[in-house]
Specification:
The protein is of the alpha+beta class and about 80 residues long. It has two helices and three strands, in the order H-E-E-H-E. It has one domain: 2-Layer Sandwich (GMP Synthetase, Chain A, domain 3). The chain has helices at about 5-25, 55-70; strands at about 25-35, 40-45, 75. The longest helix has 21 residues, at about 5-25.
């Protein structure tokens, strides 16, 4: 990717749309890094130990990020 900074800003904007939903259930998400279209996030709070975290990550967080930032190819939890 040519401009990681611009991609990071777009990802942060997408996370801002998701964050209120996670916070309503006592969780949150932090952006760790963006490298070559791969977004690394950390689920925190209640999301960190929730058995539904994988589904939240892929069906919620990843879906919204990919819709808002088409250059993202993958979202992983670290």
């Amino acid at each position: 990717m040519k401009d990681q900074g611009a991609t990071k800003k777009k990802v942060e904007a997408a996370l801002a749309k998701i964050r209120p939903h996670l916070q309503a259930d006592g969780g949150d998400v932090e952006l760790v890094d963006v490298i070559d279209g791969k977004v690394k996030v950390k689920l925190t709070g209640a999301c960190g130990g929730c058995p539904m975290a994988a589904m939240t990550l892929h069906r919620g967080v990843e879906r919204v990020i990919k819709e808002q930032v088409p250059e993202v190819v993958e979202v992983v939890e670290v």
